[in-house]
């Protein structure tokens, strides 16, 4: 797929006129990367605004013991870059971002993007929406790390991201939620006994969405 076709396929740019798409195409590049490739590191500055066209990425930090602390996933057709101040000419990463799957990335010259689009009030609403979605992810992260107990953590992930839960190994889920594998097993068995979920061949299906949501929102 060409750069222009890629831009036209993304909802973020759907309000642009033909001439605007042409201009955006001229300041953009499209590249493919293999899984495990690190797009950027924490506090690293970048001159490019990145969108995940296809694939899957994760954000994470490294603690003082060199342990990886998972934050959240970034899904296809989403903004990757973190924008904390639109007045800046460069973008600074809050966390490390690595690809979980083979992915395709749309890279846009941020300085030119600001000049030709944001400063002309184009795509501002779309950008605010992306920032809002990122804020909600941070809110969920805070709940997961500091407020929720193990049952609420598992329920929240099942309710909000069942496909990813079933795709990952139980050990990896435990690391993401910062609970012991044995604790994860106990929680899943408890939810199954209460007929909120079912587990067949290691895959979880939700039987009572309302009950699961209530647990995750407690």
UniProtKB/TrEMBL annotation:
Q: Recite the UniProt keywords alphabetically.
A: DNA-binding, Transcription, Transcription regulation
Q: Which GO terms describe its biological process?
A: regulation of DNA-templated transcription
Which InterPro entries does the entry link to? cNMP-bd_dom, cNMP-bd_dom_sf, HTH_CRP, RmlC-like_jellyroll, WH-like_DNA-bd_sf, WH_DNA-bd_sf
Give GO MF terms, alphabetically. DNA binding
Q: Which residues form the Cyclic nucleotide-binding domain?
A: 12-115
UniProt-listed SMART domains: cNMP
Listed name of the protein = Putative transcriptional regulator, Crp/Fnr family
Q: Which organism is it from?
A: Sulfurimonas gotlandica (strain DSM 19862 / JCM 16533 / GD1)
């Amino acid at each position: 797929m060409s750069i222009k076709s890629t831009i036209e396929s993304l909802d973020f740019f759907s309000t642009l006129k033909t001439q605007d798409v042409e201009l955006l195409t001229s300041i953009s590049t499209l590249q493919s990367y293999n899984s495990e490739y690190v797009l950027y590191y924490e506090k690293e500055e970048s001159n490019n605004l990145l969108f995940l066209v296809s694939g899957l990425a994760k954000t994470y930090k490294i603690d003082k013991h060199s342990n990886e602390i998972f934050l959240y996933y970034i899904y296809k057709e989403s903004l990757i870059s973190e924008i904390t101040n639109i007045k800046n000419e460069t973008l600074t990463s809050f966390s490390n971002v690595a690809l979980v799957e083979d992915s395709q990335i749309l890279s846009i010259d941020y300085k030119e993007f600001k000049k030709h689009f944001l400063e002309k009030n184009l795509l501002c609403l779309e950008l605010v929406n992306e920032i809002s979605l990122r804020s909600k992810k941070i809110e969920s992260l805070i709940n997961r790390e500091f407020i929720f107990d193990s049952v609420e953590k598992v329920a929240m992930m099942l309710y909000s991201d069942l496909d990813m839960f079933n795709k990952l190994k139980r050990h990896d889920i435990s690391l993401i939620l910062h609970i012991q594998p044995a604790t994860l097993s106990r929680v899943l068995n408890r939810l199954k006994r209460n007929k909120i979920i079912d587990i067949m061949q290691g895959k979880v299906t939700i039987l009572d969405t309302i009950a699961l949501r209530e647990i995750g929102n407690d």
